[in-house]
Design a protein that fits this description.
The chain has a 5-stranded antiparallel sheet with strand order 1-5-4-3-2, covered by helices on one side. The protein is α+β, with helices and mostly antiparallel strands. It contains 3 helices and 5 strands. It has helices spanning about 20-25, 70-85, 90-105; strands at about 1-5, 30-35, 35-40, 45-55, 55-65.
Amino acid sequence: MVEYDIKKGWGKNIEGNLLEKMMQEAFGNCKKDGDMLVSSYGVLSRIEVRQISGSVLHVSTESSDVRDDAQILDTKRKLNVFVEKATGFDAKARMKRAQQKAKKGEF
């Protein structure tokens, strides 16, 4: 489980059913399960996404037993593209924010 910060003012891009549409575009499938959106792609047998607040997105994944390097890389890229579209932060910015939180003891 990972909680990602959402860029200030970015929430309008994922409100309503826009987050569900993003997942559908990124992974080719998406269904609602309570307050979560659930999908699967590549080596990830389950991808759960839930918007906690206007500034936090929860993403949880479960891996399958597939160990094909090409498929692992493709899956990781797809997940990164989705998270960037959903949060407004690229991988480098997400890592920098996580490091800052770790220094402050917020993890």
